[in-house]
Amino acid sequence: MATGSKISLGEYLTNQRKIKNLTLREVEEATGNEVSNSYLSQLEHDKIAKPSPHVLHNLSEVFAVPYEVLMEKAGYIKDAASRTTGERHGRVATFAKADLTPEEEEALMQYLAFLRSSRKGGKR
Fold this sequence. Notes:
Elements: H1 9-19, H2 24-30, H3 37-44, H4 53-63, H5 67-73, H6 102-119
Helix pairs in contact: 1-6, 2-3
């Protein structure tokens, strides 16, 4: 896990892949072989920190996450916390009574990834 409250792009991608219960090869196939499984593995292990926006767009479509989130994680645009609009994407626990902090949202995403990988036999 990355230091501090924010997780790295690699950790975020790993969590998203586990939430979708996909293997590296399945992600490669879902991108039409635009993002190889070996490249994705390097991204997940933070060996590549700033992939091209094209790669991030492909992954955002496969994982059904906002493109802007991946662009933020890769450092292309400012993170949502530094913007003043106050708008938040309805991604996690939109049913919650109170707004979640970014840290709480990330923790929920990690826990959901854990639950799904446990339930499906830990497919990687």
